């Protein structure tokens, strides 16, 4: 995503693990899920899924940006940030258009970290990831 560019601190902007392919792929997956939701549930789901996908990817980039400023290696864990950067990004893009209740926000914030860990651990055990975080 950063085209190999670095900032004045000598660190890449986002790091080698953040790619245009992954960013576009994430938006496309969100669009596909949104289309299914559109036909199965409501017309609003398509817009929400696109906003949430874009926001999650921007949040993930923000987390990578922070990790590079802290001089952390790409893929190194940063507990809390790794589990919530994408959730906060999604909420920030969705909320101005669809006000989400406090209960829903709290559920997302408290359920996402353990779910994130479990899915990553599962992917690791299946050989889909090289680390469990």
List keywords for this structure.
133 residues; mainly alpha; single chain
Describe it.
With 133 residues, the protein is mostly helical. It has a domain at 20-100. The protein is built from four helices and no strands.
Per-chain topology:
Blueprint: H1 20-40, H2 44-69, H3 81-94, H4 102-125
Helix pairs in contact: 1-2, 2-3, 3-4
| Rg over alpha carbons | 16 Å
Q: Helix-strand pattern, N to C?
A: HHHH
Helices and strands: which structural class? Answer: mainly alpha
Give the biggest beta sheet.
Answer: none
Mean pLDDT: 94
**Alpha-carbon distance between the termini?**
22 Å
State the helix count: 4
**Gross geometry:** globular
Unreliable parts: none
Q: How many β-strand runs?
A: 0
Beta-strand content estimate: under 5%
- Helix fraction, binned, reads 55-70%
Short description, anyone?
The protein is mostly helical and about 130 residues long.
